[in-house]
Amino acid sequence: MKILILCTGNSCRSQMAEGYLKKFDSKLEVHSAGTAPSHEVHPKAVVVMQEIGIDLSTNYPKKVDEFLEQEFDYVISVCGGAKESCPTFSGKVKHHKHIGFDDPADAIGTEEEIYNEFRRIRDEIKRDFFAFYEENLVIPKT
Question: Residue 141 above 70 pLDDT?
């Protein structure tokens, strides 16, 4: 099963979702990309994922164009609200899905409040991607 997760910067949400899916099932081939990739995975995303045992420290943002020649079973966009335009994928894909989340990089406040927003989004991504995994990717045992 081959999955591509899309957002704009490929620095927070899509990286977290990629990390979760790989943790849920190491047999999945999971990639993430953005339409306008940042220069690095957001340091706070790396920290909050390390808190739960997922290492994003060697990940790096990738441009969606790198994947256009590949075929995917699922392409999932994770962009958030109306102020953000969701990226699209023009390559070969069997199923398009959208699972939206606020962008934690937009958080304001104290350092602690910003980290708490990253943790909130991290936990929402875990919940929603685990539900996606169970509903779409787990083969029922008979």
Answer: no
